[in-house]
Structures are given as structure tokens and as C-alpha cells.
Amino acid sequence: MNHLALDEAARAILRKNDQGGYTLPTYGLYPYQWNWDSAFAAWGFAQFDIDRAWLELTTLFSGQWPNGMLPHILFHKPDPRYFPGQDVWDTDGKGPIASSGISQPPVAATFARMIYDKDPQEGRAHIAALFPKLVAWHRWFMSWRNSDGMIFITHPWEGGRDNAPDWDSAMQAIDPVGVDAYTRRDTAHVDASMRPTKEDYDRYIWLVQRARSLGWDDAKVAQDQPFKVADPLMTFVLLRANRDLAALADALGEDRRELDRWTAELTTGAQGLRNDAGVFDGYNLNLGHHAGTVSNASFLCWFGLVESPKMLAELQEAFADSRYPVPSQKVGSGSFNAKRYWRGPTWAIVNMLIGLGLADMGHTAEADELRARTAKMMSEHGFAEYYDPLTGAPAGGASFTWTAAVWLAWASPSAGGV
Ligand code: GLC
């Protein structure tokens, strides 16, 4: 297929997964609105339908809780075929619509800025409406998920990288006694070898039950949840998003000082995510140690406008080790598994964020290389949820919204380069 046919195929995926005001990640496996998936979808839509892009973000923020938290799943229409559904989360009365009780990586402000920049006239009313909501969400992170300028997560799903090795020590420390009986639905759609294990799942559900027993109280969850890991992806994404929100503040004539303070705090805090080898990785706050891994999140430093010669050297290794980088776990490391979700496979969304950061920091050759290899992977293997980094074989769900969006907005030759 030439790239114009691929552009059309990617647009068709977005249209097919479109439910009116929001877009499913893919049918079957993920039948609701997911937080960061939607932000990527909006950026994809913005390549051919700006109104639809703004609608995606507006619908996403319609689920924001009064405390500022923006849930990771909005259960717009019940679907009994999904687990864990709203009955398991039991967040009734916490937000305006049924939702999960945790958040997800805050990429929305960055894409709101990019969509606004495409057409400021059309976008002005939209950013005026979204601005206070975005600030409230970022403030929630800075209040309840902030440890000395490192952003931590209280559940692996909050970080968006469900079974990343960054969480292993925190997960192993949990004994999931008392987890209610449940039936997984994900493995009915995708081969179990590509998904988290039962040991992971027991702990995912146990952690949901525990936060639920704390009444989803922000202070109690932040203090008492046994799973507390500072996350490079969360920290760099929020750092970047704060800068983008500050740019939107300027466009609107709003006060940006609070945002600038957060940016400064996170820029300093991010250095705490460097492990002994100089790589940014997960830091287990309860046990006080780093994971000692190189993941695709480690390469998001540039997206947060943080320079790192060490990570540039690691990137060259990733280019050498895998035909389709960036693997979510370093090839050859003990925890690498080419198929299992966030323990090896390449994710196009993370590649785009890494590529945007590389370009912003002047690493144009690396940005071009990453974009070219990502484009090749997609043109040979379609728009999958994730890919085997060694062979490019598609894995997980098919016809995936955010992968199609990344093609349209970044990887496709029509996107015009980084
Ligand atoms: C998986 C991913 C998460 C994503 C969701 C929907 O749980 O790990 O990042 O948001 O699927 O695509």
C-alpha cells in the first residue's frame, strides 16, 4: 500500500471507532473512552477534522471529577463484556459520569496546544473552555501524585504501561489476599502470551479493591496505597504538558506563574528518576530503590525538554538491537519479552512522543530515523496496538485508534516530518 492509501486506511479506523463524541481504542477489547487514547485520537482527527478533534477532548473532560482528577476510563454506555467494569470500581457519586477511580498520563494539554496552533481562530473558544479544567487536572497531580517533583502512580494502570518491569518490585511486595473471584475478558480477544499474567491481574484487582475501600479519598490513597512508584513517563509527560499549558495561558492572557512553578519543580524532580546507570526509570517510593531498567519511557526525557547524553547513547543501542525500535524493555535484558505488552513490544504512541522530543531538542537525525522506522513498521504490519520490536509482527488489538492517529499526525510522509 502506498502512503496515501495508508492515510485513508488510518482515517477509516478513526471513523469506524468513533462513537459520536468519543473514540474507542478498538472494538471488543476496549469498549469505552480511555483518557490518553482519546488525546492521541484528537490529534489524529485534527489532521483532517478539527471540529471532531475538539469534540473528543470536550467529551473527555465531561468526565472530570470535582477534585480535578480526570479518570482513565469513562463508562459512557455499560458493556457487560468488559472487566473490570463500573461495579468493580464503585466510584458512584465521585464524578459526573460513571468512571474508573484513577487517572492516566496527562498528554491532553500538549495535544490541545498542537490542535490550537493548527487553527488558532477556530481553537480559541475551545482552549478558553478547556484551560481551567486542564489546570485543575495538573493541580491534582501536583497535589496528590507528587513526591519531590517526581510524579508517582498508585496503580500500574494509572501510568498507562500496565505490566512494565518498572513496577515489578512493588507488585511483588503485594500479597493479593481477599481478591474477589473474577473472570478476565481481555484474553478472550488477545492471546494470553501477549497480555499481563494472572499474578499481575490479581494484584491489579486487589489494588482497585483497596482504593475502593479507602473511598477513593485522595489523601488516603496517596498515603496508604502499597503501590507507589515514581514514573518517568508520568513525570516527563506532565512536565511537557505544563509548558504547553503555560503557552496556552499566554495565548489567553491568563496567569502562568503557578504552571511555571510546577515546571521548575518537575524539571528538578526528574533528576531523581535517574538510576545508578544514569537511566531514567521507575523509583519504588515504598522501598526506596530504582527498578534498574531501560524502558521506552526512559527516552521521554527530551519530550520533557531534559537533555541526557546517556539516553542518546542508549538510543543508538536500541537502534542497533531492534529493527523496529523503541522496545518497551531493552532487548537482551532479563525482563525482555518481545510479545508481552509493556515488557518488550514497541508502541507507536511512545515513539511519537520520543520523536517529538528529539526534534525539539535538536536531535534531528535520531528523530528522522525513529520516524522512518516507525513508518516502515506500520506500512508493513498495519495499525496494531503494539508490535514485536525484532520482527515488526503486529500484537494485541487490531485497527487501533491511537496507532492510526500516530500514522496520520507523525509517521506518514503526508504528516510532513518532525
Ligand atoms: C492498555 C494500555 C493503556 C491504554 C489502554 C487502552 O491498558 O496499557 O495504556 O490506555 O490499554 O488502549
Description:
With 418 residues, the protein is mostly helical. It has a single domain (3-411), classed as Glycosyltransferase (Alpha/alpha barrel), CATH 1.50.10.10. It contains 16 helices and nine strands. The strands form three sheets. The protein has a five-stranded antiparallel sheet with strand order 3-4-5-6-7. β8 and β9 (394-395) form a beta hairpin. α2 (35-45) packs across α16. The longest helix has 25 residues, at 120-144. This is Mannosylglycerate hydrolase MGH1-like glycoside hydrolase domain-containing protein. Keywords: Glycosidase, Hydrolase.
Key phrases:
48% helix, Glycosyltransferase, binds alpha-D-glucopyranose, five-stranded antiparallel sheet, 418 residues, mainly alpha
Largest sheet: 5 strands, antiparallel
Put simply, the count of helices is 16
What is the typical, i.e. mean, pLDDT?
A: 97
The kinds of small molecule bound in this structure are: alpha-D-glucopyranose
The chain-level structural class is: mainly alpha
Write the SSE topology.
Layout: H1 3-17, E1 33-34, H2 35-45, H3 50-61, E2 73-74, H4 86-89, H5 108-118, H6 120-144, E3 146-147, E4 150-153, H7 168-172, H8 186-189, H9 198-213, H10 218-224, E5 229-230, H11 232-252, H12 257-269, E6 283-284, E7 289-290, H13 309-321, H14 348-360, H15 364-381, E8 386-387, E9 394-395, H16 401-411
Antiparallel strand pairs: 1-2, 3-4, 4-5, 5-6, 6-7, 8-9
Helix pairs in contact: 1-16, 2-3, 2-5, 2-16, 3-6, 5-6, 5-11, 6-11, 11-12, 14-15, 15-16
The structure holds alpha-D-glucopyranose (GLC).
Alpha-D-glucopyranose (GLC) binds at residues 25, 30, 34, 36-37, 160, 162.
